[in-house]
Amino acid sequence: MRPLTRSDATCLDLDIPSYMNTDDIYGVLKSRLSRLSEYNRATFAAVLVQAIEVCRMKIPDFDEVLAAQARIEPYIHHTPVLTSSYLNDRCGAELFFKCENLQKVGAFKARGACNAVFGLSAAAAVNGVATHSSGNHAAALSYAAARRGIEASVVMPSTAAAAKKAAVQSYGGKVIECEPTQAARETGLSRLVAATGADAVHPYDDDRVIAGQATCALELHREIDELDAVVAPIGGGGLISGTCLTLATLAPATRIYAAEPANADDAYRSLKAGEIVERDAQQSVADGLKTNLKPRTWHFVSNYVEAILLASETEILDAMYLTWERMKIIIEPSSAVALAVILKHRDRFRGQRVGVIITGGNVDIKHCPGCKT
Ligand SMILES: Cc1ncc(COP(=O)(O)O)c(C=O)c1O
To answer: Nearest CA to 259 among 245, 275, 243, 273?
Structure first.
């Protein structure tokens, strides 16, 4: 059964008391539907249960973005917007690069993590925060927790690169190793949360994280007005959801494009199919973009994203090295996908003012991706 969208769910116009949990609701529905055949009963009840979960899912609004901006301001950088006349000429467009590679921890993830951590009440913060991630979110959550003076624990696959574990530890985070499967990561986190009472902060399926990521487009919009388009990479969709949240409110005419590696094109396939399509993690140099959408991020992608544009592995690496060389800034492959799709789809952006979110700069320059050493 395809996951329901929020608009499907609201169409059903459900009025279920908030004290009922999903099992209660399921039980009630099953007994009320006893006149239907067994198959229809189970399917119908399952659809309704899903609809209720989607209705209860918290979607942040723009006020939460403004609150996030005020809350995280002391802990993050207001990153610069850079331009390059060389790249403008190459693309036939005016590009404005929002440089989150120069953000704390080297990625926009500091925004969402700080919003989640500094939004916790004193009582909720006492037990610290936890997540499962092997990427920038793990370091960002550790950074935010350290600034607040609370503990951060990160469940990481035992196979994660030593450099990634070291990055978490360097910000004071505690690494808990698990088997290298999605199931082991999720079980590991559930156990950890049950044992410690830590607050679980998902890398993108979390309204606090989305509101935090939305502050990036807010800063860009305040500095550069009248953008025709904004292009940002998409993994699980937390950043693009935040971008949609901000721009749908402040600049509804600005078109929003997501950039994705062709090797990890689950969001592209989802938008085409009109429902979330999950794919196993593929091999891609853009390791931050291998995650799948969730109903909360699908809500934004399906309602506000103009198109998802794909780039090959070679195009991503070419765009990354081009940025290093011409702009003199270090960006990681996951960030370079945005420029790669603009270079590839020049006609779509020709003559336009385009915001480009450079999401991060965490790359091991001693082992350059794609270099033959
Ligand atoms: C550098 C970088 N860019 C983009 C993304 C994708 O972000 P999201 O999962 O919010 O779509 C990530 C996620 O880890 C990342 O680390």
So the answer is: 243
